[in-house]
Amino acid sequence: MNNVDLRDTASLSQAVNEFHGSFERVEREVGKTIVGMREVVRGTLAAICARGHVLLEGAPGLGKTSLVKAISTALGLTFKRVQFTPDLMPSDITGTQVLTEEPGEGRRFVFKEGPIFANIVLADEINRATPKTQSALLEAMEERQVTVLNQTYTLPRPFFVLATQNPIELEGTYPLPEAQLDRFLVKILVPPPTSGEMKEILSRTTGTVSNPVEAVFSPEEAPTQIAKMQSLVRHVVVSDPIQEVIVRLIAALTPSTPFATPNAKRYIRFGPGPRGAQSLVLSAKVAALLDKRINVAFEDVQKAIASTLRHRLILNFQAEADGITPDDLIEEVRSAR
Questions:
Q1: What is this structure's pTM?
Q2: What are the DSSP calls for 3-30, one per residue?
Q3: Superfamily assignment of 236-337 in CATH?
Q4: What are the extents of the domains in the chain?
């Protein structure tokens, strides 16, 4: 997949089929642990294929942590979890220099890696940490590296931050800064289970039978295979008319543009920027591949717009007073075509 020749139909078709097959195998393995939540699982895996980070929002006990663990196991990637609390310090995430003494070498500072040195890092309840600690993730999420005492350390490849936050617990939480929200490719809302799914959850979790998740890729081949899938996503074609549609959608949600809708001008303080448009394009490309196409259609854009833009709309007080959510404004634009 790394050297896909778009002029070679057979080679391209094979690459798309391999992508689709690998994606479905990972989905099936995750499904051994996670009941329902098909769109959540698919959206999270799609973001990984697009080389992006994921913010999962939902009530406690819905399986967000279990989902991240299952995905890391199915992909064959290393996994570490950071429980964000108000007293968590940046060095607890990135690592720090530790003074050590070894025979014959005397005392010297040695860098001790923090939990961020993993392929998949679960930032659990990320909005419970202070802004200072949250900012420790900014460089890692954007540049896949961390800097400690003027020394830069490269993070493992691939590297993803999968963060969770609880929309209910308001006391003792700190809203994520806009700059950090913008670094998440998607924000996915985790819904409560249906009655049928609840019965299946009880059956799986309160009995004696277990069905553990197995790795689709071995730890040795996982980085290469994921890199191939990410490379194929970049080969998906976005025509000029589709690009124009995406540009107009972004403009419709940006109050300072002449294309902004009346409700956008009324309720939005700041609209999505270039990262929002990039995230929408990449997510739409993955949607096209999952439909076994090498070109983006308008339907792919419609599928991706909510998860890629909902966390990038900064609403004003009038929106809060009127009970308007980012999803309401996105749906208005999506259905206006």
A1: 0.89
A2: T--TT-HHHHHHHHHHHHHHHHHHHHHH
A3: Magnesium chelatase subunit I, C-Terminal domain (1.10.8.80)
A4: 1-86+120-143+157-235, 236-337
